[in-house]
Design a protein that fits this description.
With 286 residues, this protein is of the alpha/beta class. It has a single domain, classed as Alpha/Beta hydrolase fold, catalytic domain (Rossmann fold, 3-Layer(aba) Sandwich), CATH 3.40.50.1820. It is 33% helix and 14% strand. Helix 5 links the parallel strand 5 and strand 6. It is globular, with a radius of gyration of 18 Å.
């Protein structure tokens, strides 16, 4: 009964917070994405903007998981956007390109472009250009960690004004993320294969093993995992947290004892469903 009441209360809170406008997706590139291999929806990376009705100026690009082969667009996309809206945060759910049709760097190009768009159009979206984060789940967590460790300050020589904006997120939120590609005991091999192919260059594998890519320029990070996660072991989050700590990057890590992989907001679990509240506390300090 307690679980049902918790689920009902969470549902009411989320759906009472309608976005300021009905979300309509738009492509990241008006003329087609670089390296596109077709014209179907899966070839057209896009953003769905969920603008908060009472915005506090913060924005987050949301990257659903799915092993780089699918997108969990509901419980790791739409539901997350609605929760962020309830906190006054505008959300931009990313539909990024997937394997095995696409491989790196298509995915990181899509994530970087999404951050640039939100930053370049900050006034239009009613957000602060210095409070733009990225949030990802599972393989989407790997993509978010990649965006937080592989970025540039903008490309001023580009004819595309969007490319002038920095691709560095101001913070990152990583939920049960895929992180390592080199520590074999903890690697999510499906994500690695879909992102990099069957026989990737070892240097590329190391470069995208994101615990090895952290520097002092990496933005502050919030990480959440469960000890019982057998899909993506919690050591992924631990490795990234330790790398952040080594380089003096502000970070917060929460590992819950119970809970499977891919829980999203975990509405039906009394203990695990407290993780969004911990995130809300952390975001207030940003």
């Amino acid at each position: 009964m307690k679980n049902l009441l918790l689920l009902f209360a969470a549902s009411v809170a989320l759906f009472a917070q309608r976005p300021a406008a009905v979300p309509v997706s738009f492509p990241l590139w008006a003329g087609g994405a670089p390296g596109a291999l077709g014209t179907d929806d899966k070839d057209i990376p896009a953003l769905t903007p969920w603008i908060a009705r009472n915005p506090n100026g913060m924005a987050i690009v949301v990257c659903p998981g799915g092993g780089y082969g699918a997108l969990a667009a509901d419980h790791e996309g739409t539901q997350i956007a609605q929760w962020l809206n309830s906190q006054g945060i505008s959300a931009f759910v990313l539909r990024y390109r997937l394997g095995p049709k696409y491989h790196h760097p298509a995915m990181i190009n899509d994530a970087q472009r999404a951050i640039r768009i939100v930053r370049a159009r900050a006034a239009e979206f009613r957000v602060n250009s210095t409070k733009i984060g990225i949030m990802g789940f599972s393989a989407g967590g790997h993509l978010s960690a990649s965006a937080a460790t592989h970025f540039d300050s903008g490309k001023p020589s580009s004819d595309d004004i969007i490319e002038h904006a920095s691709s560095r997120p101001d913070f990152a939120v990583l939920a049960y993320p895929v992180i390592t590609f080199t520590e074999e005991a903890y690697v999510h091999k499906g994500s690695r294969r879909n992102l990099l192919g069957e026989n990737p260059d070892p240097k590329l594998v190391e470069n995208l093993s994101n615990e090895r890519a952290v520097t002092k320029e990496t933005p502050p990070c919030f990480l959440f995992h469960t000890d019982a996660d057998t899909g993506v072991p919690p050591e992924n989050s631990v490795l990234f947290y330790l790398a952040l700590r080594k380089h003096g990057v502000p970070a917060e890590l929460h590992i819950y004892e119970k809970g499977p992989h891919g829980v999203g907001l975990a509405w039906s679990d009394i203990a695990l469903s407290t993780w969004p509240a911990r995130l809300a506390d952390w975001l207030r300090n940003r």
